[in-house]
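Hi there,

I know you've been waiting on this one. I reran it after we fixed the sequence typo, so this is the corrected version. Both the input and the resulting structure follow.
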Amino acid sequence: MKKIYALLILALGCMSYSYAQGSVSGIVVSDLEKNPVPGVSVYIKGEPKGAVSTDFDGNFKIKVQQNEGILVFSYVGFKTKEVAYSANQKLNVALTEEVSTLNEVVVVGYGSQKRSDVTGAIGSVKSENFNKGVVANTGQLIQGKVAGVNVTGASGEPGASQDIIIRGVGSLRSGTTPLYVVDGFALDNTGNGVASNPLNFINPQDIESIDILKDASASAIYGSRAANGVIVITTKKGSKGRTQINLNMTTGFSTLANKVDVFGADEFRRQVTAINGNLIDGGANTDWQDELTRTGISQNLNLSMSGGTEKSTYAASIGIDDQEGIFEKSDLKRYSGRLNLTQKAFNDKFNIAFNMTATKLENSRPDIRNIVGSMLTMNPTDAVYVNGEPNVNLSNNVLNPLINQRIYSDETNNNRILANIAPSYEFIKGLTYKFNLGVDYSMTERDIQQIPYALYADKNAGTLNNIITSNNNVLYENTLTYNFNVNAHSFTVLAGQSYQKIQVNQKNYNFEGFADNGIEPKNQLETVVKSTGHSSSAVENELQSFFGRVNYGYDNKYLLTATMRADGSSKFGKNNRYGYFPSVALGWNITNEDFLKESEVVNNLKLRASWGQTGSQEIPSKITKASYTESNTGNNTYPLDPSATDLSGYPYGSIFTRLANPDIQWEVSTQANIGLDFSLFNNRLSGTIDYFNKVSDKILLEVTPVDPIQPATKYWTNIPDMEIRNSGIELALDYSSDKSKDFSYSIGGNISFTENKVQDSPYKILTTGGAQGGGQSGATINGALNGYSIGSFYMQRFNGIGPDGRSQYIDTNPDGEIKDDDRVVTGSAIPDYIYAFYLNFKYKNFDLGLNFNGVAGNKIYNHVAMTSFNKGQLANSFNTTDRASEFPNEATTNSNTVSTRYLEDGSFLRLNNATLGYNFSPKMIGLDNVLDNLRLSVTGQNLFLITNYSGYDPEINTGTSVGEIQSFGIDYFSYPRSRTISIGLNVAF
């Protein structure tokens, strides 16, 4: 027995020698800039579960059992490195930056993929590449950043909506709006009661990345809502390591970027006198554009904190954003909070993710059209103030716009919570079940009011329009994902089910006649004289979906993606409740072939091809069902009571307001795409080129029946044979210099050519934009015609002023008469191509980034000029531009008619964003024990614009739609765009 004990002691001694407890420590830095790299995973080769992470100074310490071995250093954005160690050794490790984007993770529907495995057309923008400055919403972040994505601001108002068109306009009624998915939750923004952009509730500083799914292969997994593309937003998550705190502070100053060249006071006097007009001279010299605009001051404060362990991570933030517009009572205030959590359990088989965003939004809007119209047409000889008070005796008995600003208000308060929780469990290796439960709840109250003003007859009563809207969107999803490999074959199989229910309720109240006591109408309802109308509505829509996807790869060379989704929507009739949306895509990583593996020039070359179908269900609810109302007019009643002497004694009859149509189908977009991704010269030069062809059919519209004898004047239907075709080419290129130098740079850009065409429409024209005001309401400005693009301008050609002082037009038939059938297509609001480019420079701690964007080949209809800039206005002492005196023989009574006289070139080039920054070294300023980073930056937005357009800005669309069909390229007293300079400070602890 003693011998056995002796042998055991000897064996343990040997083991203690071979597995001596020790440690290895050191620091990890980047090989180019020699900066510490925090968050690097360090583990013994073959034992990844024992990994530790470097702290924010790049330091690490790991326990080792053996005296010698190999440590593995791994971190996203750097090449993995293996380093030999000896126990108790101190290492200095330099990691090489991974320039290639092949290992970049791209978020796709219900999952993510490495860029090298993607077969669809997906554009990605990371947070470091977002547009900087005073930014209110997602669209502003990505303008000009992705080929084939045209982001157009509807106006210059704080938080204004954007028209985001992905690969051309593919619908009429449903417009261009893509589907937005935030952390796996599909949003519904159709009815939340917010007058400005509904996406303003998302704090831009909370966003980590934005992925744009452009082709059908990428977006078909979202089926019925993906016809206009999908924008996937991923918010910032925590990572293991020491807690990191970031404080961002920005202050911005916004001013009117461009003035319209209306007459000054002296020139105005000369011009009115020259045409023998009625000069009303107030004796002053007033620039109403200066008087009615201001320097808007915007302030942003954002505090975030993130960190975690091997088992759990967290990221939290609070933000305050106060943005002032260039008009009084034009403000957007946002108070936001975000919390993202992850937790692992049961040997990392069980994972749970929780995401929540809570926002309070306060939006004040002025009477925009009134203010813009006033600053352009007010008599410049009128004084603004008399004895320190707003002048109440202005030319033509108009109300001083300063008074109108004081008595008018449009205020919206929106509270919104978006939250989802997603637990998942891995039953066996590679097989994971995930449940996603989410809710998006929004409550909005909007008050549009006018305080009584006794000195002006039309304003003495006071009015209030109170609108209360609630939107409740609930999502339940179940997915099963299986990842497995068989030799050189790799598979990812996804199957899922989704159910989404959206409820929108709205109440609308109108009141008139309030006491003139200095109290706002919304706060004294007890004094109201009468209710002028009230209404309410409730809409409930459901979407039930089943979907599946297979990703297959062979030897990292050949890729296949196949998707199918079936969507059932309550918006459609019983005969076509479900739609089916397939897609298939192929990819070939040519670089991995033997003949390119050793190439020193070609680092990546991948060919992609795809085909698929997506749908659109963005139509009004209940349109498949009949709708009725009561009427006792015309043939809708019968005198059952023989004593009745007029219609008031007749009974009411039920009549159709809408016919039932259970056969309505989905709009379907069928898209084919072929693309090439490449990177060359050690990944210095990279790019993509894509060709796409997208055809939309089964177009849904509310139309007038061909048969005039119908029980309803209009009905909803799919237009037989009508197609909207979009085809084009997209190109993106990027080049980076050697980043190891003190001076480095990168340059790049993108350009997209798109041809849009309407085919086989049974209608001569479907009006997409009409004129307003001055006897012109409803006159066609643009529309959809066979053989031309959507938004084509359809009007008479202006041919100067005739001897009688009236406008002349070209007889295009020709039949010797000028009539409606002399109208022709005179251009389109849709650009022939859009482009953007950037220049980034870095010298030591300084950096400068310049971002440009532009469009070409489009037209804009200057509705402001048609309405206001004419000789008749000038003769009555309203201000105009030199358009009014362009033709000396024009009669002051010449009428305004929609024509090419007011159609202008909409092409432009804009310096959209420029940022100059300096990164302070905390060590150099003696704060290295307190701070991790300190950055100061100055950003300019809309610094200069090159255009021939005579209005405030060519990137504009007032949205003068007809019959809820979206309009394009019409400028009607839009909120002018501002120029903003902002100063930002970023501090990391």
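Quick highlight: Confidence is low (pLDDT under 50) at residues 1-20.

Best,
R. S.
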